Every structure is written in C-alpha cells, then in structure tokens.
Amino acid sequence: MPQKRILIVDSDVASRNFIAKKLYESNYDVSQAGSGKEGLIYSWRDRPDLIIADPALPDLTGEEFASKLRNDARTSHIPLVALSSDTTSSRRQTCLDAGFNEFIPKSGQAVPLLRDALVRLLGLTEEVMKQGGLSITFLGAKGGTGTSSMCANIAMNIAQFQPESRLAVLDLVLPIGSIAPIVGYTGEMNIVSVADMPADETTPEFFRRHLPAMNIWRFNLLAGSPDPERSNQLNVGRIWDIVTSLKTSYDYVLIDIGRSLSKITLPLLQHSDLIALLISTDISTVSLTKILLDYLKSKGVHLDSVYTILNRAVGLEGLSKVDAEKMLGITINAAMPYLGTNFAFANSHHQPFTLKFPNDTASIIFHDTAKEMAALARKLRGEQFAPA
Ligand SMILES: Nc1ncnc2c1ncn2[C@@H]1O[C@H](COP(=O)(O)OP(=O)(O)O)[C@@H](O)[C@H]1O
Ligand SMILES: [Mg+2]
C-alpha cells in the first residue's frame, strides 16, 4: 500500500516537528505548514490523505480553516483532525461543528490518540472502498420514508436474480436498528457487539462465517443497535474497518442509515457506489430532501450516484412525481406506489414483499428497481468521476 500523506498545520514549530517526527516513525509521509493560508494552499494543491491542524492559527481560526476545506470539492472529503491546546468543551464543539472529524487535546496522550485516529480515519480510503463488493447506502431525509423496508426488500431482490452473489445488509440506524424486526432476527450479534470486538477478530473471514443468514431473505445481516442505551456505547471508530471487511467478503453490502446523516455516516455516503435516496410525497419531506441533496453535493457527492426512489409510504395523497421532480430539480429514478396495509403485513410477518405478494405489480417494481440499482452501482464502480 502506498504511504499515506499527512499535512500538519501548526504555527508552533516545536510542536509541529515533534508530531511530524512521531508520524514519520509510524511510516507516514509528512509535510508541514506554519499558517492557515499556507495550510489551505498546500491542501488544495497536494490533496493529502489527512490533515492535522492546531485550531489556534495566527491568520485564520481553525474553524475558518476547516470550513474553507469542507466547502471546496478538492478537499471536502479529506479527514481533518484538530490537535489543540485549548481543550475546553466549547472549543471542541465549535471545531467538530466546523468540519473537524476528531478533536485531540495536546497532552501526554496526544501521540497514541493521534495514531488511533489516523488508523481509523485513513481506514476508509477511496482505494479501499473501490475494492471488494459494491456498496449501496439507503438514506431518507425523514423517518418513515421506507429506507429500512426498501433496503431489506431490494437486497432480497438482488439476491434473487443473482443467486450466485453473496449479500450483506448492515443496519446503521441509530439509536435503534429496524431491519432486525422486519426480517425477524432476534439473535445477539449486532453492530454494537461487533464493534466491541478486538479489531483483529472482525476479519472478512469472521463475517463470511459468522454473520447470521436470514434464510428466505437471502442475505446475511449485521443488525443495528438493539436500544438507545447500547447505541450510545457504539464504538464508532470501528465502523470503517467493519464496512471494509464486509466489502471484502460479500459481493454487495447494503447499508441502511435511515435519516442518521452524521459525521459517522457521511464518509460512507461519499464512498458508496450508489446512494438510494428515499423520498416521500409530502411537501416537508421533499423540501428537506432538497436541503439534503445540496448538502451531499457540497460534500463532493456526485448526483449521478444518487438513485432516487419516490415511495408513497403513507397514502395516496401528496405530490405527484412530476411536482417532486420540479421541486428537487432532478429526475426521480423509481416510484413505489402506496401498498396499503400489504407492506406492513409482509413486514410484520417478517417476509419479503415479493414472496408474500408475488402477483402484486409492486413486486415487479421491486424486481426491476433492484436490477437497475445493481447495474448502476456496477457501472459507476467502473467510472471515475472527474472532480467537480
Ligand atoms: N410504499 C408503501 N406502502 C405502504 N406502506 C409503506 C410503504 N413504504 C413503507 N411503508 C410502511 O411505512 C412504515 C415505515 O417504513 P420503514 O421502512 O420502517 O421506514 P424508515 O426505515 O424510513 O423509517 C412501515 O410500517 C412500512 O410498512
Ligand atoms: Mg428505518
């Protein structure tokens, strides 16, 4: 693997040199900048794999530095670590709000904390995500738009027309996962328990052998957090290497993030082969979806990798497809009609919709949508998007 390039931005030469030396010893390729402006120029020009900055810069605040990087397509996705001697919780918060991924206090523990953060943040690199199984991440601007039922049913339909493929579904909806109740899984293994395991045990081999199979659903499930208390204990730093392990051992990894767009899930969206965006037909969801799309665009997500599904989850009323397209300024890829109580019925019997109601026209839509999504994900994997 090529050496990872890290830029350190700090006006304090001694501190900068000290960190540079430690990282150099850990086999990173390190460069340095002494001011915010210099840091920005180097970042945009060299696009390092990761940037460490002391937020107390002489010319800009660290917060300004972070938002300038975040708002530029060349650097919006680069992991950013604050290394700060101002360790107050308010400073920590403003840094995280401005776009730093992690905040590490300058203390005796700084170097080991930094090393951990680097492994974590560099684990999910573009190269790694471009290898292995195709990833499709399901997202909605609001709860109840159908991300979980779609994720499970699309996964099952992909598996049905590609019986030789192995599929994993990962439920990252916080604070409570919702795929398990849909497919009827009641076992002990879930994202929180797996993230608690030592990193050297959650190998691709582990997931290939031990991820529970959901029988008629034809996929293996890494269930979500069983309750909010457990979700607070989730070791989020482990998510990246869990996802890459899953991608190594499965042909498809479908991830439900529901509406939990956060700094944990944003990198997954930025590196998914395809994003399935669920939209319901009420005006408030459509306007929230517009905000979400603009945000994703500003974070370097290419709209060609967003597959939009208009899902009439609550009833027949609401905007037409054409109205929704006008409001959003995009073409909607698929539309799922209101399925009445049938959908809830299939869900509550833990059955895929297409098995319970094979003759319903919606079963054809599920099948066609799954086919189109799988084909699109594969096509996008083969293409490299030019930077915006
Ligand atoms: N097209 C649809 N027709 C009828 N009911 C639906 C439809 N899509 C979703 N539902 C129902 O809406 C509820 C919410 O769906 P769910 O998949 O849990 O949404 P989310 O995961 O986005 O919160 C479920 O009871 C589901 O059965
Ligand atoms: Mg859900």
Question: Which outline best applies?
Answer: globular
Low-confidence stretches: none
Summed over residues and divided by their number, the pLDDT gives a mean of 91
For the biggest sheet, the summary is:
7 strands, parallel
Strand order of the largest sheet: 8-7-9-6-10-11-12
- Secondary structure tally, helices: 18
Small molecules (ligands, ions, cofactors) in the structure: adenosine-5'-diphosphate, magnesium ion
Oligomer: single chain
How many strand segments?
12
- Compressed to H and E, one letter per element, the order equals EHEHEHEHEHHEHEHHHEHHEHEHEHEHHH
Rg, alpha carbons: 22 Å
**Which structural class do you get from the secondary structure elements?**
alpha/beta
Relative helix content:
40-55%
Task: Explain the overall architecture.
The strands form two sheets. Strands 8-7-9-6-10-11-12 form a seven-stranded parallel β-sheet, with helices on both faces. The protein has a five-stranded parallel β-sheet with strand order 2-1-3-4-5, with helices on both faces. Strand 3, helix 3 (62-70) and strand 4 form a beta-alpha-beta unit. The chain has helices at residues 13-25, 36-46, 62-70, 89-98, 110-123, 126-129, 147-161, 179-183, 191-195, 204-210, 228-232, 239-249, 266-271, 283-298, 321-328, 340-348, 353-356, 361-382; strands at 5-9, 29-33, 50-53, 80-84, 102-105, 134-140, 167-171, 220-222, 252-258, 274-279, 306-311, 334-336. The protein is 45% helix and 15% strand. The chain is of the alpha/beta class. The structure holds adenosine-5'-diphosphate (ADP) and magnesium ion (MG). Magnesium ion (MG) binds at residues 147-148, 173, 178, 258. Magnesium ion is lined by residues 147-148, 173, 178, 258.
